[in-house]
Amino acid sequence: MNIENTKAQMRKGVLEFCILSVLKEKEAYTSEILDTLKAAKLLVVEGTVYPLLTRLKNDGLLTYRWEESTSGPPRKYYGLTELGKTFLTELNGTWRELSDAVNIITNNKN
Questions:
Q1: What pLDDT digit, counting tens, does each position of 43-70 carry?
Q2: N or C of the chain: less Cβ packing under 10 Å?
Q3: Domains of the chain
Q4: Boundaries of each Transcription regulator PadR N-terminal domain copy (predicted)?
């Protein structure tokens, strides 16, 4: 069994939740989202994030707007829609339940 593959699958499973959480306070462009995820030690590559942002937008959870940049091409800023905020609230509850269950199981000293 390849531990790196298992770890990658675990990260991939929470990536959508993490991206929505990054955007809960303010809009951000892709590089800011990636920097935040990397600062939290969530190893992510751009090639994973761009399709996910597109899917979240197509699902109505994200919106975006273009903004001119003084240091290059225009930037696409993503933000949560009302549906995205509701979805994130649901995910937060699910995450707490899942996290509690995993902690109970993994900390059980039988």
A1: 788 888 999 999 999 999 999 999 998 8
A2: C
A3: 3-107 (1.10.10.10)
A4: 19-89
